[in-house]
Amino acid sequence: MKDIITLGIESSCDETAVAVIKNGREILSNIIDTQIPIHEKYGGVVPEIASRNHIEAISRVTKKALNDAKITLDEVDVITPTYGPGLIGALLVGLSYAKALSFANNKPLVGLNHIEGHIAANYLTYPNLQPPFLCMMMSGGNTQIVHVKDYCEFEVLGKTRDDAIGEAFDKVARVVGLGYPGGPKVDKLAEEGKPTIELPKTHFDNLDFSFSGIKTAVINLNHKMPDINKADLCASFEKTMTEILVENIQKAIQATGIHTVALAGGVSANKYIRKAFLDLPNTKVYMPDLKLCTDNAAMIGSAGYYNYMAGKRSDLNLNAVANLKLC
Ligand code: KG4
């Protein structure tokens, strides 16, 4: 069978990324132009600045992705941009660029859900992984337990009722003075601390999450006790967050009888969380390579391949959708 080459394009937040993927599983190139140093001084992503920097980068990053893959645009079979969820202006840059490439070169266009991309990061790390499995999806904007029934068929079993997990990590980092992006900094400082501080957990009868209570508890403790050991606070926060995740995924395993769990999203780079999931009894656990956990276009190209093979096509009317749902 002929190889299918997808050109993944990702610009939903603060990374301009383009990747060339073969048959959904092999990375021929994966270029990420990060804006983190630009947004660092503001303590978070400034949407308008993100859009402007995507415009400046997108063409250069695409050329580099094609060069590194040693192919020309002619050899690309399908162009697969992220069209949501994310920052609307940022999304529009990658999507408009992809639409222009598709129109000018007469190539099919398949718009991709960013969350679906995060799940597909596992297919790039594990060439033999196939659905069905459960996915603990944890990013800056989303936290949900997904039943991945097939490559393009999903059911959300539980989700956050307030903050996304990455948001909570970033907020905690900010209040303890670690800066942006907070997750990796909390991860690092927590290694030096002891999880001795008790923090609240919110439980529901179903598989939903809530992180606002624990986030507020950390903010209040830090405010009332300015001399509190920050490393201990981060370690306690990370441990309690992990317990919340593990309790819910165990409930999901019990409810579905599915003992295969994949992690996805930026927070799945967290060392403590990765270890806790690997320790789950009677469960086969998959987690993306660290470089594929946070935003990248390789995962978008992989998910794009499966959508293309399933016959999905987008037309030039496709618009960006800031709050696009997985299903
Ligand atoms: O998936 P992602 O790159 O972007 C979205 O699609 O939202 O996730 C970004 C989030 C940020 O909140 C960042 O702080 C968090 O992932 N993150 C981490 C770690 N690395 C990134 N959180 C905890 N520990 C980490 N090592």
Instruction: Tell me the major beta sheet.
Output: 5 strands, mixed
- Structural class by helix and strand composition: alpha/beta
The share of residues in extended strands comes to: 15-25%
Number of domains: 2
Bound chemical compounds: 5'-O-[(R)-(carboxyoxy)(hydroxy)phosphoryl]adenosine
Radius of gyration: 20 Å
CATH topology of the largest domain: Nucleotidyltransferase, domain 5
* Percent range of helical residues: 40-55%
Choose one word for the global shape: globular
Strand order of the largest sheet: 3-2-1-4-5
Mean pLDDT score: 97
CATH architecture of the largest domain: 2-Layer Sandwich
SSE string, helices as H and strands as E:
EEEHHEHEHEEEHHHHEHEHH
CATH class value of the largest domain: Alpha Beta
Write the CATH homologous superfamily of the largest domain. ATPase, nucleotide binding domain
**What separation lies between the terminal Cα atoms?**
31 Å
Question: What oligomeric state do the depicted chains represent?
Answer: single chain
Count of helical stretches = 11
Spans with pLDDT under 50 lasting ≥5 residues? none
Count all strands and give the number. Answer: 10
Please give a structural write-up.
It is a single chain. The protein is an alpha/beta fold. It has 2 domains: 5-118 and 294-309, 2-Layer Sandwich (Nucleotidyltransferase, domain 5), CATH 3.30.420; 131-292, Nucleotidyltransferase, domain 5 (2-Layer Sandwich), CATH 3.30.420. Helix content is 43%, strand content 19%. The protein has 11 helices and 10 strands. The protein has helices spanning 36-40, 47-69, 88-105, 114-125, 165-175, 182-190, 212-224, 230-256, 271-278, 290-293, 298-309; strands spanning 5-10, 15-22, 26-34, 78-84, 112-113, 133-138, 143-150, 153-159, 260-264, 284-286. The strands form 2 sheets. Strands 3-2-1-4-5 form a 5-stranded mixed beta sheet, sandwiched between helices. Helix 3 links the parallel strand 4 (78-84) and strand 5 (112-113). The mean pLDDT is 97. The site of 5'-O-[(R)-(carboxyoxy)(hydroxy)phosphoryl]adenosine has 21 residues, from helix 4, helix 5 and helix 6.
